[in-house]
User: Which sequence fits this backbone?
């Protein structure tokens, strides 16, 4: 009788260990924050590209309706000045891009170097080493 109860206790302990291991696996599987962090670390270019595409798509679809400009006489000086201002404003986004590039470049530099290195290594591996 003692052997039977000892076997039952051992079976219960084994069952508890299995449940504990399954619970630990479930907790790890449901850790979304860790999964996202690991994904961003392992695939930074895909995350940056998708964020950029999302921004472009959002700016295209969430654009405000343009307001038509009132017509002015063709000889008016105001119309000529307005035409020059709109030509400058069309390229004004380039002026805003320079400080943004200066801000983002130090962060993206290691990623760009790694990407270029992997691309060149892949091309060399396909073509073979130069002779």
Assistant:
């Amino acid at each position: 009788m003692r052997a039977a109860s000892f076997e039952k206790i051992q079976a219960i302990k084994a069952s508890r260990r299995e449940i504990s291991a399954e619970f630990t696996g479930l907790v790890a599987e449901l850790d979304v924050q860790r999964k996202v962090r690991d994904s961003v670390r392992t695939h930074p270019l895909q995350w940056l590209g998708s964020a950029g595409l999302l921004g472009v798509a959002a700016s295209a679809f969430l654009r405000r309706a343009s307001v038509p400009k009132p017509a002015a006489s063709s000889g008016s000086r105001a119309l000529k000045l307005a035409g020059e201002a709109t030509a400058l404003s069309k390229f004004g986004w380039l002026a805003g891009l320079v400080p943004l590039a200066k801000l983002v470049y130090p962060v993206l530099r290691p990623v760009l170097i790694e990407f270029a290195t992997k691309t060149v290594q892949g091309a060399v591996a396909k073509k073979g080493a130069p002779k």
About this structure: The chain is about 80% helix and 0% strand. The chain has two domains: 1-41, 78-131. The mean pLDDT is 78. The helical segments are 2-29, 32-42, 44-61, 77-90, 92-127.
